[in-house]
């Protein structure tokens, strides 16, 4: 692992961003990528990589040069058959993207979500009741995985049976943005069964009459999208809406258990809670990477890049770029963390970001009210994924406030 | 570059030189104006960049679209001159624009 030579004027870095070593502790690699240069060539996958904030933002802004329709992962859809029909929102460019995003965005903004808030808060209260009764809990299995599974499938309007398929499906989708490594193969072991269930749930008949799913089909009735596209957008919600929020809540609990003085700051001033979640997303970056593909010959920071090249963007590294952030490796809830690229940026910025925020806010508000201290109660266990960074276990001890 | 004045609810004023073509929200965030949070970064999703356009400037600022109006219904203390600053694009014609900031975004 060293800078050996240059390729088209950019440093060559012989790293594997999807190896166990890298995914277990990405930070030294991130630093190496950032410091090597604004654009780096990774020979193992023949991709261009960017890890500095400025270049990452620039590429996400310039969707005409750096498109999404050739896939958001390593696989180039211009050259390889995708593992599933491409997403019509994530893996689409304008004008199609504008049409599909135009259907989802108004369902998922803060105003639209306000009607869900009371239900979220009630569920959060019960969850904290039960966690406090036990005192010793697993932050992942007892809180971060439980809460989204209680609220999100209901919000979409899914039937109760078979919801356990949602997690392996999301795990497949996010691993599939990487190479066909062991993580990929392991995730795809029961692919057929899981995919069949998911596709079945995306049908109009399978959905309740009052959830996001029904609202998406209403857009089909209104002629904004086709019936088939409606099913594809429901699939997008089910792929992107659950795992990510679990990783987000896990990240928050892990951060506050690791930095108890930051929890105390929020306890003293609950107005810090929403900005604090932005800092969690910046600091932990549950979604670590995304790819774009060049549509034409271009240049970034003086490095010429050919057409039809894959570009790997390190969101997590950009969120800790010292060129943009003061003391980037310090978790500080008083920081103005807005502007991080943890939800992406530009036209493809996470359309469900307000769902993620609302879920986190519901859980954390209840915890802030009632829990004085969150303590690590054992060694957290990392869960490796080609895109997501999170834990499979987070032993915690909760100390109730008086 | 258009100059924009942000007036805080406590009466303090911030004058900002903002490049034409950027949004009013970006002008605020780039200059660390307190009171504009802009959680979603300009995706018209969060309603945390709420501001009140000074009455004198209402006629010069393009009107709000459907999604912005939907979101404005969710802000605290909505008024007839309420706008989301991420949806206001700055141009030379808006040189001198004055906006008032709400006491709180949520």
Features:
heterodimer; A: 402 residues; alpha+beta; Cytochrome p450; 5-stranded mixed β-sheet; 3-stranded antiparallel β-sheet; 17 helices; globular; B: 106 residues; 2 helices
Instruction: State the strand order across the main sheet of chain B.
Output: 2-1-5-3-4
The backbone outline of chain B, from C-alpha atoms, is globular
Strand content of chain B: 15-25%
Q: Whole-Å distance between the termini of chain A?
A: 52 Å
Structural class of chain B: alpha+beta
Radius of gyration of chain A: 21 Å
C-alpha termini separation of chain B: 31 Å
> For the report, how would you describe the main beta sheet of chain B?
5 strands, mixed
Shape of chain A: globular
CATH hierarchy, class of chain A: Mainly Alpha
Label the CATH architecture of chain A: Orthogonal Bundle
- In helices, the fraction of residues of chain A equals 40-55%
Oligomer: heterodimer
Structural class of chain A: alpha+beta
Task: Tell me what you see in this structure.
The complex is a heterodimer of chains A (402) and B (106). Chain A has 402 residues and is α+β, with helices and mostly antiparallel strands. Chain A has one domain (6-400): Cytochrome P450 (Cytochrome p450). Chain A has helices at 20-24, 27-36, 53-61, 96-108, 110-134, 139-144, 146-156, 166-175, 182-187, 191-201, 212-221, 227-240, 243-258, 260-268, 273-284, 315-318, 353-370, and strands at residues 3-7, 10-13, 40-42, 47-50, 66-67, 136-138, 289-294, 298-300, 303-305, 310-314, 371-376, 381-384, 389-393, 395-400. In chain A, the strands form 5 sheets. In chain A, strands 3-4-10-7-5 form a 5-stranded mixed beta sheet, sandwiched between helices. In chain A, strands 6-14-11 form a 3-stranded antiparallel beta sheet. In chain A, strands 1-2 form a two-stranded antiparallel sheet. Chain A is globular and about 65 Å long. The model of chain A has no long low-confidence stretch (mean pLDDT 97). Chain B has helices at residues 24-30, 66-72; strands spanning 3-7, 13-17, 50-53, 82-84, 98-100. Chain A binds chain B through residues 105-106, 108-112, 114, 274-275, 278, 336, 338-339, 343, 345, 349, 351, 353-354, 357, and chain B through 29, 32, 37-41, 43-48, 67, 70-71, 73-74, 106.
């Amino acid at each position: 692992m060293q800078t050996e030579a240059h390729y088209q004027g950019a440093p060559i870095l012989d790293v594997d961003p999807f190896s166990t070593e890298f995914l277990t502790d990405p930070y030294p690699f991130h630093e190496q990528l950032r410091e090597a240069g604004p654009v780096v060539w990774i020979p193992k996958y023949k991709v261009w990589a960017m890890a500095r904030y400025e270049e990452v933002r620039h590429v996400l802004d310039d969707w005409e040069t750096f498109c999404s329709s050739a896939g958001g992962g390593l696989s180039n859809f211009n050259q390889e058959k995708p593992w599933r029909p491409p997403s019509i929102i994530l893996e689409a460019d304008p004008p199609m993207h504008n049409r599909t995003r135009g259907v989802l965005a108004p369902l998922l903004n803060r105003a639209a979500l306000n009607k869900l808030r009371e239900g979220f808060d009630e569920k959060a209260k019960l969850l904290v009741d039960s966690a406090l009764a036990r005192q010793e809990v697993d932050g992942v299995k007892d809180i971060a995985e439980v809460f989204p599974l209680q609220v999100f499938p209901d919000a979409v309007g899914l039937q109760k049976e078979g919801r356990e398929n949602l997690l392996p499906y999301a795990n497949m989708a996010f691993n599939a943005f990487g190479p066909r490594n062991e993580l990929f193969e392991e995730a795809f072991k029961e692919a057929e069964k899981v995919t069949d269930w998911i596709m079945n749930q995306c049908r109009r008949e399978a959905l309740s009459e009052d959830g996001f799913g029904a609202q998406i089909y209403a857009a089909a009735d209104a002629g904004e999208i086709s019936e088939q596209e409606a099913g594809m957008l429901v699939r997008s919600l089910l792929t992107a809406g659950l795992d990510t929020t679990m990783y987000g809540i896990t990240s928050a609990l892990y951060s506050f258990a690791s930095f108890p003085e930051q929890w105390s700051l929020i306890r003293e001033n609950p107005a810090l809670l929403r900005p604090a979640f932005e800092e969690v997303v910046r600091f932990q970056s549950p979604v670590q990477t995304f790819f774009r593909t060049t549509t034409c010959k271009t240049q970034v920071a003086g490095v010429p890049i050919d057409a039809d090249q894959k570009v790997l963007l390190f969101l997590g590294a950009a969120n800790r770029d010292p060129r943009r952030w003061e003391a980037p490796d310090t978790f500080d809830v008083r920081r103005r963390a807005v502007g991080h690229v943890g939800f992406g940026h530009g036209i493809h910025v996470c359309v469900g970001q307000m769902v993620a925020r609302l879920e986190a806010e519901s859980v954390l508000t209840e915890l802030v009210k009632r829990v004085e201290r969150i303590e690590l109660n054992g060694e957290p266990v990392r869960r490796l994924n080609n895109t997501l960074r999170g834990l499979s276990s987070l032993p915690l001890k909760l100390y109730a406030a008086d | 570059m258009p100059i924009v004045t942000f007036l805080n609810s406590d009466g303090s004023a911030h004058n900002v030189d903002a490049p034409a073509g950027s949004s009013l929200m970006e002008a605020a965030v780039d200059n660390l104006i307190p009171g504009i949070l802009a959680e979603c970064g300009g995706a018209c999703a969060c309603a945390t960049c709420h501001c009140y356009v000074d009455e004198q400037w209402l006629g010069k600022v393009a009107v709000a679209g459907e999604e912005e109006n939907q979101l404005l219904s969710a802000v605290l203390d909505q008024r007839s001159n309420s706008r989301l600053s991420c949806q206001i694009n700055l141009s030379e014609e808006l040189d001198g624009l004055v906006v008032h900031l709400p006491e709180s975004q949520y």
